[in-house]
Amino acid sequence: MVYLTRVEHFNAAHKLYNPGWSREKNEEVFGKCANENWHGHNYELYVTVKGDPNPDTGFLFDAKRLSGIIRERIIEKLDHKNLNIEVDFLQGKMCSTENLVVGIWRELAPYIPAEVRLHAIKLYETPRIYVEYLGE
Amino acid sequence: MNEVNKKVAVFRREHFNAAHRIFNPLWDDEKNAEVFGKCSNPHYHGHNYELVVKVTGVPDPETGYVIDLKVLSRITKEEVLERFDHRNLNLDTVFFKELNPTAEHIAMVIYELMRARIDPALDLQIRLYETDRNFVEYPA
């Protein structure tokens, strides 16, 4: 089994704010991340697929084509967007990196080519904070 | 030793995460989109900004420091991070109510804030990364 990862990035605004709570409770739980007018991040997205190399090409899958799929299905929806307001698969959910990574998996999985299987989505919110989802 | 030529540059790196929108309020949406592309999205987007503060001078003969980097970090936090971190630059700061928060303008604003707190005998330069690939320096 060989694992191929493609890295993409998107720049987005978001806030962590539970509408069912008071402002005080949001600030107590989320601190500065609850800022009403949002803040932002350069997100780094790592999409890992797995499979066996094709004997003719030596590829698991063409990484440029994988990039195209990720950009069309995910980056177009997220880049330079406000995650709380403009992303259909996050509506009604908290805009945490955890929920984002699960949402990205579910959006992307149907478009992963049959030659490989989606193995992991890893998403860096900052260089020091990242989450991973393995589809479990 | 000729101390005049013994200048050293010291650097402190900090970061802040902020939302912003790049646009000219005198233009219509179409022109803003044409000039600024996705950066003019009306609902804002954001960045992890990386800030590098460069201070240049002759090391103090008593301490060996150009400037105590703990002090420089504290000044940067007080003047910059407190104002910009986890904020919306257009909506939450006084500086960008009318000034377009491009990386260029942000660096210039940061310079003025820091310049007021740093010994005038020391040179100051701000480098600001909007992304890994796009960064600005001021003064150039």
How are the SSEs placed, and which strands pair?
The complex is a heterodimer of chains A (136) and B (140).
Chain A: E1 2-14, H1 23-30, E2 39-51, H2 63-78, H3 83-86, H4 97-108, E3 117-126, E4 129-133
Antiparallel strand pairs in A: 1-2, 2-3, 3-4
Chain B: E1 8-20, H1 29-36, E2 45-57, H2 69-84, E3 87-88, H3 89-92, H4 103-115, E4 123-129, E5 135-138
Parallel strand pairs in B: 1-3
Antiparallel strand pairs in B: 1-2, 2-4, 4-5
Gyration radius of chain B, rounded:
17 Å
Strand residues, percent of chain A: 25-35%
Domain module count of chain B: 1
* Strand runs of chain B, count: 5
Largest sheet features of chain B: 5 strands, mixed
Oligomer: heterodimer
CATH class of chain B: Alpha Beta
Which architecture of chain B would the CATH scheme give at its second level? Answer: 2-Layer Sandwich
Pair of chains with the largest interface and how many residues each contributes: A-B, 22 and 22 residues
Number of domains of chain A: 1
Write the CATH homologous superfamily of chain A.
6-pyruvoyl tetrahydropterin synthase/QueD
Query: Spatial order of the strands in the main sheet of chain B?
Result: 3-1-2-4-5
Q: Span between N and C termini of chain B?
A: 30 Å
* CATH architecture descriptor of chain A: 2-Layer Sandwich
CA-atom Rg of chain A in angstroms: 17 Å
Describe the structure.
The complex is a heterodimer of chains A (136) and B (140). With 136 residues, chain A is an alpha+beta fold. Chain A has a single domain (2-15, 42-133), classed as 6-pyruvoyl tetrahydropterin synthase/QueD (Tetrahydropterin Synthase, Chain A, 2-Layer Sandwich). Chain A is built from four helices and four strands, in the order βαβαααββ. Chain A has helices at 23-30, 63-78, 83-86, 97-108; strands spanning 2-14, 39-51, 117-126, 129-133. A four-stranded antiparallel sheet of chain A has the order 1-2-3-4, with helices on one face. The two termini of chain B are 30 Å apart. With 140 residues, chain B is of the alpha+beta class. Chain B has one domain: Tetrahydropterin Synthase, Chain A, CATH 3.30.479. Chain B is 29% helix and 28% strand. Chain B has helices at 29-36, 69-84, 89-92, 103-115; strands at 8-20, 45-57, 87-88, 123-129, 135-138. Chain B has four helices and five strands, in the order βαβαβααββ. Classes of the chains: A alpha+beta (136), B alpha+beta (140). The interface between A and B is medium-sized, with 22 and 22 residues.
